[in-house]
Write a structure and sequence with these properties.
This protein is of the alpha/beta class and 235 residues long. It is 31% helix and 23% strand. Strands 1, 4, 5, 6, 7, 10, 11 and 12 form an eight-stranded mixed β-sheet that branches.
């Protein structure tokens, strides 16, 4: 009996302005190893797909008018085998709208879409595989880590109002993986409901159902502030 190879779309988000970084270069375009932060994300995904899944859409989001800069940040990639499915898509004015633009640009009706932050260059092949596999089994998945510090809920004046249990909390990462058709429909609904969503698990939770949490990795950090460059230097 032949096992069906699942068709996967990948969306790597790099449409933000990186205002918290300071300086003039987007965090995703910072140099790392033989390429950039962004190209290192893409390389790891391509390694997984060469072994385990069939990539049918491979999309990078970029700021409006920023296609050439994005191409330059990916110049060390060997994409000849993926020209049929590779696109750079302009984002919107929020992460939500940027992902929606990318979802609408998908051409080949994948089973699962994996959405990853372009500023998380240290994601592992194992984590990508586990997240996609969990979405195939449950419809949606996200990597998460139990917080190290004790968590408290505070009011608008800064006073603690609730003592939270770390064991029931998770700090989510990416890739966030979903059944493509359902997520696209959920984004279509979310685009007209007047609410701004922080990530795709919130949209899925509002319109589709539960999201399975798989074990995340401490190394899968998101480059956000200038001090995070120290981490790049140690890698």
């Amino acid at each position: 009996m032949t096992t069906k190879v699942s068709n996967i779309a990948v969306i790597i988000t790099a449409a933000g302005s990186s205002t918290r970084m300071g300086g003039g270069i987007k965090k995703e375009y910072l140099p790392l190893e033989n390429g950039t932060v962004l190209s290192n994300c893409a390389k790891t995904f391509l390694k997984v797909f060469s072994k385990s899944f069939n990539i049918v859409d491979f999309i990078i989001t970029c700021p409006v008018g920023g296609q050439e800069a994005c191409k330059n940040a990916l110049s060390d990639l060997e994409l000849s085998s993926y020209q049929h499915c590779f696109q750079i898509v302009e984002g919107g004015n929020s992460r939500q709208s940027s992902v929606f633009n990318a979802l609408k640009a998908v051409k080949n009706n994948p089973d699962i879409v994996a959405i990853h932050d372009g500023a998380r260059p240290f994601v592992s092949e194992k984590l990508i595989f586990n997240a996609i596999q969990a979405a195939l089994e449950n419809g949606a998945s996200v990597p998460g880590l139990t917080p190290v510090d004790t968590q408290k809920e505070i009011d608008k004046d800064g006073f603690i109002v609730r003592h939270l249990q770390r064991s029931s909390l998770t700090a989510v990462q990416t890739p966030q993986c979903f059944e493509y058709a359902k997520l696209l429909q959920a984004h279509e609904q979310a685009s007209t409901d007047g609410k701004e969503y922080t990530d795709d698990t919130e949209i899925w939770g509002t319109y589709c159902g539960k999201v399975k949490v798989v074990e995340g990795e401490p190394e899968n950090i998101k480059i956000t502030y200038a001090k995070d460059l120290n981490i790049l230097m140690r890698k």
